[in-house]
Amino acid sequence: MNGTRGSAERHSLRGAIDRPALLAIRDVFNDEEPLAAATLDDFLNPTALEVRFEDGLCDADSCRLDIQWTVQGDYKFHYTDTLNVNLRWGKHPHGGDYIHVTGLEHYHPPPDASSDPNDVEGSCIQQSPDLLVARAVLKLWRTAYHADTLKPLNLGRNPP
Questions:
Q1: DSSP of 132-156, one letter per residue?
Q2: How far is CA 129 from CA 58, 95, 96, in A?
Q3: Cα torsion angle, 38, 91, 18, 8, sign
Q4: Which helix (H) or strand (E) holds 19?
Q5: 3-state class of 24 per DSSP?
Q6: Alpha-carbon distance 82 to 128, whole Å?
Q7: Which end of the chain has a smaller Cβ tally under 10 Å, C or N?
Q8: pLDDT for 63-74, tens place per residue?
Q9: Residue 34: is the preceding peptide bond cis (ω within 30°)?
Q10: What is the pLDDT of residues 104-127, one digit of tens each?
């Protein structure tokens, strides 16, 4: 096995996409966030949930969350906006490469969702159920939105 492939496997979500979890997460965003519209990329065989917001954080005109959730409970919530700001909350194996992360939960900070081992932080989201994680991400987004800064995005207490 070559080193690149092994590294990619250690940083991958485990298991198949969990359609019922994505549907439940979709409902959280559609029911609880008036600026959001969440849809599956394919209703019967989804690979991701896309949540579009009518406004973005700070000076962004709009933003999007791309969400994956697996039957193993691994996930990625990737934020991107019109200013090309990216960040990501995740829970999946990462091969111990992130020196500031003790468990599977981690946060790739803005502005570029860096994967540099020195930049990735432990996530403030330590809950596992899909609905709690979705609500935590939504609360962190909403807090940053009202504060007009990216700083609160990984500062919540568990659960945020």
A1: HHHHHHHHHHHHHHHHTSSGGGG-P
A2: 29, 23, 23
A3: positive
A4: helix 19-32
A5: helix
A6: 30
A7: N
A8: 999 999 999 999
A9: no
A10: 999 999 999 999 999 999 999 998
